[in-house]
């Protein structure tokens, strides 16, 4: 169980697919001081990542106009972060954008996915992730991130990220939980493991990511527990 009191969603805004959690908790880094004195609302909802997708018209336009797309993301996030995590609009946007980004990564479309990535992104990977090959414990910068993803994907003939729920932590952080499945290109080794991503959003872009192959570790990094 998550260590917070659960309250039902507002009537008419998807009570069955989300639960708002209230409580005070410690936050890592600079968010701890700013938020330790107020209640933090956490909302979880299911998401679905489709298989065998292609670029839609919107993503083709994003590739042609990456700068304008990032500016739009910034304006959109500035508006969303003013809303409660329980807001129908905020939940609907996350339920749409997150699967679309994962689908781009699953089809190895780094050109599209990198548009969602902050130029100064910090990437942190657990030893279990690093042991699978291709990725390093930590890196910074979008170009370095893209290079790491190319190495990572080159080591895997098949690889899919399949998050099935997202937790909006209400403080510019999102926690994705689900599974990762893949087959090594050279080794033929198959993986089917728990997977979690703790993401920090800045200017509407992915500014920090922590990758986990253990659900409990991912929840713990977010200050939660099963």
Question: What's the pLDDT, averaged over the residues?
Answer: 84
Strand order of the largest sheet: 1-2-3-6-7-8-9-4-5
Spell out the helices and strands N to C. Answer: EEHEHHHHEHEHEEEEH
Reported by name, the CATH topology is Nuclear Transport Factor 2, Chain: A
Quick one: how many beta strands? 9
**Helical content (DSSP H or I, runs of 4+):** 25-40%
Based on the coordinates given, report the CATH architecture.
Answer: Roll
* The CATH class: Alpha Beta
Structural domains: how many: 1
**Span from first to last CA?**
5 Å
Number of helices: 8
Which features characterize this protein?
9 strands, disordered N terminus, alpha+beta, 226 residues, 9-stranded mixed beta sheet, Nuclear Transport Factor 2, Chain: A, single chain
Question: Can you describe what's shown?
Answer:
The protein has 226 residues and is an alpha+beta fold. It has a single domain (36-221), classed as Nuclear Transport Factor 2, Chain: A (Roll). The chain contains eight helices and nine strands. The chain has helices spanning 31-35, 57-64, 66-80, 88-106, 110-113, 127-131, 142-154, 215-221; strands at residues 5-7, 19-23, 40-46, 117-125, 138-140, 156-168, 173-184, 190-202, 205-212. The chain has a nine-stranded mixed sheet, with helices on both faces. Strand 6 and strand 7 form a beta hairpin. Helix 2 crosses helix 3 (66-80). The chain is globular. It starts with a strand and ends in a 5-residue tail after the last helix.
């Amino acid at each position: 169980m998550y260590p917070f009191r659960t309250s039902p969603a507002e009537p008419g805004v998807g009570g069955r697919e989300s639960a708002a959690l209230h409580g005070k908790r410690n936050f890592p880094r600079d968010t701890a001081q700013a938020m330790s004195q107020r209640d933090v609302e956490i909302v979880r909802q299911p998401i679905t990542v489709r298989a065998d997708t292609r670029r839609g018209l919107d993503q083709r336009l994003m590739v042609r106009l990456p700068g304008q797309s990032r500016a739009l993301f910034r304006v959109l996030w500035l508006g969303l972060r003013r809303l409660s995590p329980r807001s129908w609009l905020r939940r609907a946007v996350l339920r749409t954008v997150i699967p679309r980004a994962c689908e781009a990564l699953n089809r190895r479309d780094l050109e599209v996915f990198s548009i969602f990535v902050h130029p100064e992104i910090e990437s942190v990977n657990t030893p279990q992730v690093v042991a699978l090959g291709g990725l390093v414990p930590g890196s910074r910068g979008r170009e370095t991130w893209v290079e790491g993803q190319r190495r990572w994907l080159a080591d895997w003939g098949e690889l899919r990220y399949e998050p099935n729920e997202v937790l909006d932590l209400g403080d510019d952080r999102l926690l994705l939980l689900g599974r990762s499945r893949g087959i090594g290109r050279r080794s033929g080794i198959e993986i089917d493991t728990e997977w979690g991503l703790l993401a920090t959003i800045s200017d509407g872009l992915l500014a920090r990511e922590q990758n986990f192959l253990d659900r409990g570790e991912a929840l713990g990094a977010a200050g939660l527990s099963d």
